[in-house]
Every structure is written in structure tokens, then in C-alpha cells.
Design goal:
This protein is an alpha/beta fold. It is globular, with a radius of gyration of 28 Å.
């Protein structure tokens, strides 16, 4: 197969999806049927104008002139920002001012029909020449209503040097040389015949993902990846839905990034929304199902797209979304993701700071809103055994992250003293919102006794397990190597402590009472006994050096407590003093932790402010930064990706086996 063969096959796949086809030179200046006046123009003006007239009946021609002009002459400060601003226009309508009865007001001129694909114009073009700082010719461009929404770059399957990464580099060159082609862009596709990947205009090569599902293809592994991608993503209704609901833009200190959904997020959200509507309208059981998505596969963004799509369903009458976690740091990380993805959500999320604010938000909210809280805020007031109902509405959707951990306890149990019956926190949450719909997100569902994730939320909506995630490259393989440090431990006491700690952390994972602190202190003593940290540090440094001989990268060390984290840091520095640095922006190893003013100075010196955590996050993600290792206790275990990290995690556990 040559590159031309692959291109022709790709055209055939598009035509099978009922896309019109044209050669680039045919519709260019001087061609048999020109649709643009100059090679630097990327919008097919006749098709755009026809769509504007077709989709905006009754609107004055001069208004359509203004809308067309705004799109054709659009330019932004940077490519990603231009793509973001233009995306909002294309999704919601082009804002144009009109004058009526002496008053000026703004109307939105629609560019696409999102529900009926036949009312849109679909065209696939090959060899489309564009003039910018250079004159270049991308292999294929997909136009909808005259706008170039996808660029496809192909490489010769027979050329070993022209692989998919060469196609990625070519896309990068195009963005610099002809940026106007990418301002309306939805997705870029690269393929060398064997491998096919899709990604956003801001994605690096590792963020280009496969698309492994298509109608009519029962065994996608038996087809070319490019065929599955084209027939899956570029199905007309799929592409419209994807364009409308599965694009977000995140802004951080490093700039603005475009985020697009993977195929597993797209299909998972659609199934989740279908299940939610069925439950609310017909079953009335409050069970939104379980989304089993392995850690690192994009559950947070799946939740964003799920919430955004539900908010646009008219039958839900402007639903309220409540996102529930069981830890403050996880609540903050998830809230940050939602807050940075406001475009698909169409609102600004609110984080409940305390129990009173949560009560106010949920009891006074008539409709709408996205609220974040920890499950602990639903617990009864001190001295009470019950909670008041906050809302009886059925259009409240509760998204429970890490649903396998604290979403149980609907049956009462006697406490250890045998004096009082108690329930789990999930029971009180359901009492407060009795008619809400509950969706469970988890990477590790469980089924044991009265702790059954499916029993609480309903059957699985979608499953994206570790094997699928590793095959797609969304997560890296996990390798486990046992490292044993012999200790004299009372196994009976250790087993008792494990049971006690599991019970305490389940009931009170956020506000540790004196019993929890006592149990942790005994576990900490075991973990730090008999010079164990000295041995652990020596073994860790030796193992780290051996790993670096095989693969470059960074690593994370998880400690049982802040005191253990600092003590291990000191032992490692004894082995590698050159790794130490007082300044937050220097050094090869750091501890990431909070530290109250009551802590001794040895711990306080390692306290990190939110701004310092952000800096360390940036450093650990940068493969060229000298920061190589971080020691954490409970922070940083979730919330962001760090591709530079070696797929290996060291632990400082409370038992002899590492």
C-alpha cells in the first residue's frame, strides 16, 4: 500500500458515510469549480453562506453578511485562543448586533444544525493547497458547512522512516505555516496506515489517541485503525455530537490548552446520559449506574462532559449537578478541573466551604448550578442521629467520585462499645437528597457483604479497564517489584491495626479523631522502627540508579505520615546530599505536604503553600527539570498527569513488604 492508496481508501470511507468528495485543485482558484478566490482562504464561502441562509430563515441578508464576514475574517492573538473563541461562536451561534425599532440588540446566527445532519453540508477534500508563510498542501481536509473542521495527514505505509510521528510533526509545521486552516479545527488525524491517532491542535504526540469503535464494525481489531477512526468519529451524527459536547479548553499558568474527549469518554458519557434520563423519567430508582474507568484514564473530564451534556437536556429542566468526593484535596482537584472547563458546562461551579453553605446551596437552589462538596458535610449535626431533607427535586444529579470508598452504610451497625447504632455517610446523603440520581465513578469497584458498588448505584454504565487503557496508551503499564525489609513485628497486633484503621478511615477520613490518631501513631512506629528508614533509603537510591540506567524519568515515594516522609527525606539526603536544596525551585527531591503551625521546625521547613505546590507540579511534569523525586503522604496521589514519571511507585508501608 502506498500513501496514495491509503488516501483513496480514506476517501472511499468518507463517501460510504455519505460525505461529498472533491479534489483540492478542482475547488481552488483556476479550478473547474472554484469555491474560494485565493489560496490563503480556507473557508469555502459559497457553502458557508448557503448554510447560514438555510439555518437562519427570516433573518435579514445584511445580518447574514455580518455573520459571514466575522467568520471569514476572524483572527485571534494565538492559535489556541482563536480556536477557543471561534468554537464558542460555531457552537452557540455567531453574535451579530441588529437594530429594531430604534434599539440595538444581539442575536446569534446559527452555523450548524446539531440535531439533523442532513441540513448540513459535508465535504471531504484531498490535496488542499493553502498559502501562508509557506505554500503547503495537507493530504485531506474535512469541511462541514464550508468550514475546515478536521485535517488528516497521511504517511507512506511502505516507508519505515515516515511513521505516524512524522505525520504529527507535519501537522505541527502546518500550524506554524498556515494557522488559518486550524482556527476552526475540531480535530487533527494522523496515520501511517498501520497506526491512526486523533488529537487537538494543542496536544503533544502522547495525547494523540486511537478511536476504536464504529457502527457496523464488530471486530475493530481486524480492520485498519484509520478505517475504524474515520467510520467511527466521522459518522455525521457522531461528529456533530462530538463537536457540540466533547470539547473543552483549560487555562493554567502554562497557558491555554484544548481538550477533546477520547472514544471511551465519548461513548461512556452517551451511555451515562441515556441511563440518567431513563432512570429519572421511567424507573425513578435514583440509580445512574457505575462508570468503571481505570485510574488515569480521564474520569474527571468524563464527569465534565457528562455534566455539561445533562445540563443541556430540556427534559431535565435545568438540572443541578452535585459532585461529591471524600477528601478535601480530591474535592479541590476535581473542582479545579471543572472550573477550568466552563465552556462545555455553561456555568461557573461553586465549592461549598462548610456544611452551612452546602445546606444553603442545595435547599435554596430552585434549578441549575454545579456544586462541589465532600460527603462528610452531609453527616448529622453534633448530637443528632438524622439529617434534614435539603431538596426533594428529582432533577438533581449527584456524581460520586471514588465511589467504591465511602458510598455505603445504609444498614445500621452497633459501634465497638455496643452502645449506639450508626450508619455510613452515604445514607445521610441519600436522606438529604432522597429523589436525586446518583452516578458512581470508580477505578476499583467492589462487591463484598454490604459494600457493593453496583448495589448502591446500579449496574455498570460503561467499563474501561486497565487492559484497554494500556492498549490505548491513556495509562502506562503498572509493574510491581517486591522489596523486603525484615522486621520483628507482632502480626496479631498488625492485623488488628489494619482492621481498626480501615474502619476509622471509612467513617471519618477527613476529621481524624483521637482514636484514629492513636492507630496511625502505632502504624507509624512500626513503619519507622529499627532503623528501617535508613535501610529503605539505601535500597531506594540503589534501585533508582539501576532504573535510570534503563529508562530516564521521575518518581514518587508514598509515606505513611508527614513525620515518616520528612524522616525518609533526611535519610535519602544522607545518601545523596547533592539532591538537597532549600529553594523550592531547586533540588532533586522534595516533600509535598501541609504543616500546621504547631508542627516542630523539622516538619515546618517542608511545608508547601498552594503556590509552591503548583510550582512543584510544573517541575515534576517537566522532563528537563532537575527535580526527580517527590515524597508525598496523601497529596498528589490523584489529580494530574505527569508523563515524565517512571511507571513505578515506591511506598513506605506499615508492613515489612514494600
Amino acid at each position: 500500500m502506498t500513501e496514495n492508496d491509503l488516501e483513496q481508501a480514506c476517501i472511499d470511507w468518507f463517501r460510504a458515510l455519505d460525505w461529498e468528495y472533491a479534489h483540492g485543485e478542482t475547488i481552488s482558484p483556476g479550478g473547474f469549480s472554484p469555491e474560494r478566490g485565493h489560496y490563503n482562504e480556507v473557508v469555502l464561502a459559497p457553502r458557508l453562506r448557503s448554510a447560514l441562509e438555510r439555518l437562519n430563515l427570516g433573518i435579514n441578508a445584511s445580518v447574514l453578511d455580518d455573520a459571514e464576514k466575522k467568520v471569514r475574517q476572524f483572527a485571534g492573538q494565538s492559535l489556541v485562543e482563536a480556536n477557543r473563541d471561534l468554537y464558542v461562536w460555531l457552537r452557540d451561534g455567531i453574535p451579530v448586533e441588529v437594530e429594531e425599532d430604534g434599539h440595538r440588540r444581539q442575536i446569534n446566527v446559527m452555523v450548524f444544525d446539531w440535531t439533523d445532519p442532513t441540513r448540513n453540508d459535508w465535504l471531504i477534500v484531498n490535496q488542499f493547497t493553502v498559502k501562508g508563510s509557506k505554500t503547503v498542501r495537507p493530504d485531506m481536509v474535512a469541511f462541514v458547512n464550508g468550514l475546515p473542521l478536521a485535517v488528516i495527514e497521511l504517511k507512506n505505509p511502505a516507508d519505515e522512516k515516515a511513521d505516524v510521528y512524522a505525520a504529527f510533526n507535519q501537522i505541527g509545521n502546518y500550524k506554524n505555516e498556515i494557522p488559518q486552516l486550524f482556527e476552526p479545527n475540531v480535530v487533527c488525524v494522523i496515520s501511517d496506515g498501520t497506526v491512526a491517532r486523533m488529537g487537538s491542535i494543542s496536544a503533544d504526540s502522547e495525547r494523540f489517541m486511537p478511536w476504536r469503535a464504529a457502527n457496523g464494525i464488530d471486530h475493530p481489531e481486524q480492520h485498519l485503525e484509520l478505517e475504524v477512526l474515520v467510520k467511527g468519529l466521522f459518522d455525521k451524527q457522531t461528529f456533530l455530537t462530538y463537536f457540540h459536547h466533547f470539547i473543552a479548553f483549560q487555562t493554567s499558568g502554562a497557558g491555554t490548552f484544548k481538550v477533546i474527549a477520547g472514544y471511551h469518554q465519548y461513548h461512556g458519557v452517551l451511555r451515562g446520559v441515556e441511563r440518567a434520563l431513563n432512570s429519572i423519567q421511567h424507573r425513578h430508582d435514583g440509580k445512574g449506574g457505575v462508570m468503571w474507568f481505570t485510574q488515569g484514564s480521564g474520569k474527571s473530564l468524563l464527569a465534565v462532559f457528562y455534566a455539561g451534556m445533562l445540563r443541556e437536556r430540556p427534559e431535565l429542566e435545568n438540572p443541578t449537578i452535585v459532585v461529591v468526593t471524600d477528601r478535601k484535596d480530591l474535592d479541590g482537584q476535581l473542582f479545579e478541573t471543572f472550573a477550568s472547563c466552563r465552556i462545555p458546562l455553561r456555568t461557573t461551579p461553586v465549592q461549598a466551604n462548610d456544611r452551612a453553605e452546602l445546606k444553603k446551596l442545595l435547599s435554596e437552589q430552585v434549578a441549575g448550578g454545579i456544586f462541589f462538596t465532600t460527603i462528610q458535610k452531609f453527616s448529622p449535626e453534633k448530637g443528632l442521629d438524622t439529617v434534614e431533607q435539603l431538596s426533594s427535586r428529582s432533577n438533581i444529579i449527584v456524581i460520586c467520585d471514588e465511589a467504591h470508598r465511602t458510598q455505603y452504610g445504609f444498614k445500621s451497625d452497633l459501634d465497638k462499645k455496643g452502645e449506639k447504632y450508626r450508619y455510613g455517610l452515604a445514607k445521610y446523603m441519600h436522606d438529604a437528597l432522597p429523589n436525586a440520581l446518583y452516578l458512581g465513578l470508580t477505578g476499583t469497584p467492589i462487591s463484598e457483604n454490604d459494600r457493593d458498588t453496583e448495589a448502591v448505584f446500579g449496574t455498570y454504565v460503561d467499563i474501561y479497564d486497565v487492559l484497554a487503557s494500556q492498549q490505548d496508551g491513556t495509562t502506562v503499564p503498572i509493574h510491581y517489584e517486591q522489596r523486603i525489609i525484615d522486621l520483628a513485628v507482632n502480626q496479631a497486633e498488625l492485623g488488628s491495626l489494619d482492621e481498626e484503621l480501615e474502619e476509622l478511615l471509612e467513617d471519618d477520613p477527613e476529621e481524624q479523631n483521637s482514636r484514629t490518631i492513636s492507630a496511625l501513631s502505632r502504624l507509624e512506629s512500626i513503619a519507622m522502627a529499627d532503623g528501617r528508614l535508613e535501610k529503605l533509603a539505601e535500597d531506594l537510591v540503589k534501585h533508582w540508579d539501576e532504573r535510570l540506567e534503563a529508562i530516564d524519568g521521575k518518581g514518587m515515594i508514598v509515606a505513611i505520615s508527614r513525620r515518616a516522609a520528612v524522616a525518609l527525606y533526611d535519610e535519602i539526603i544522607k545518601c545523596r546530599p547533592e539532591w538537597h536544596a532549600k529553594d523550592i525551585d531547586k533540588g532533586g527531591i522534595k516533600v509535598v505536604m501541609t504543616s500546621p503551625a504547631s508542627d516542630p521546625s523539622a516538619l515546618r521547613v517542608h511545608a508547601t503553600t498552594p503556590q509552591e505546590k503548583k510550582l512543584l507540579e510544573k517541575r515534576i511534569k517537566d522532563p528537563d527539570d532537575p527535580l526527580k523525586l517527590v515524597i508525598v503522604r496523601d497529596m498528589w496521589l490523584t489529580g494530574f498527569d505527569a508523563p515524565a514519571c517512571i511507571p513505578c511507585m515506591w511506598t513506605n508501608p506499615c508492613v515489612a513488604k514494600g
